[in-house]
Amino acid sequence: MQAFKRVVGGAKHTGGVIVSLGKAFCVVCGAEDELTKERLCVPCFKERTKLSILSETIQGFRCPKCMMYLHSGRWGHHESEEYHEGLVQEALEVEGRTEALGIGIMSEEIDERNTRLSVQVTGYIDDIEFEDIHTSIARISNSVCPTCTRKAGNYFEATVQLRSSGRKLTEDELTSLRTTFDTYIESIDPDPMFFINNEGNVTGGYDMVLGSKALARGWTKHLLRRFGGTSKETNSVVGRKDGEDVTRLTISYRKPAFNLGDVIRKQGRYWQIHAWQKDGALISSIDRQERTGLTWRDLEKTIVVSQASEHLEVEILKRDSSAVDFMDPNDWKVRTVSLPYDDDGSQGSLHIALIADEWVALPRTAGGDVSE
Questions:
Q1: Fewer CB in 10 Å around end: N or C, the chain?
Q2: Nearest-angstrom CA–CA distance, 329 and 316
Q3: Sheet strands (E) in 78-125
Q4: Residues 282-325: pLDDT tens digits?
Q5: Is 329 exposed, middle or buried (0-12, 13-18, 19+ CB in 10 A)?
């Protein structure tokens, strides 16, 4: 006798599982709920899919000398919470199809070296929302960074020699030059090799022994833009490593014996140093609107008749079309001086310089960095 399969209400009965004919179903459990792209119901899809994996312990490293942390192969200064976040992001494995990933971290310090991290991970895989909760211990071990290792071994790559052309640098000039190093370091991306090995006064100037050739060259360019002058590089071979010469760089930077705003005498006329150029200085006349250039060699042959640091800003007491009265700060007597060529009658004060025992009004020249 031929066997018949019993069909009730449009459904097929097979082995105790009732499956509707013509409807999509989960290939694992046969449920007819909402299915994913892989033809799995949401519970089965979540059971077979892992959003994230995080180990129970995460290893971190901190230098006991400078307190820098190692993260992504680089040493740097980080706050504890910031570093823990970096460790989690580095160690966390996330399913490649995840979208709208969210990570929340709550830390609880156990002791100086161990911190318990509670990590919440959320995201969507094939439009299905997932959430994982992980608990991990961040362990911080000591490891001396390359910078401190090299400092301890008196390592350096370059020396910058600060000098002046034709005279000794003053204390104010040395302070000004040294201050630019700190400002330059703050303006560039940090690097563990950007450190000072040694520094101090030497005969004729000041030496800075640095851990990086790039830092030495970058700062020298900054000095040239800010103060003008010249620089000269020399390299010396100190050994060999991996078949290549190991060299050390020495940069001699010479600051001009002048400053922006100084008044010099050239061919019987007075000029003011307006800006630095790569090959010298741009000077402007103080008696009429005229500018010209001087090479470093020509500049060294001139004489400063009034330094910018000695110039004064005085209040105008009375003015006419060609001159103004002001009070001499040296003896508090009223003096008269001719107006500068760029006066438009609106200024309430005057920039003056004592030249050849006479007060001279200076034009409002805007000195600056290196002129390209």
A1: N
A2: 13
A3: 93-94, 99-109, 114-125
A4: 999 988 888 999 888 888 778 888 888 888 888 989 888 889 89
A5: exposed
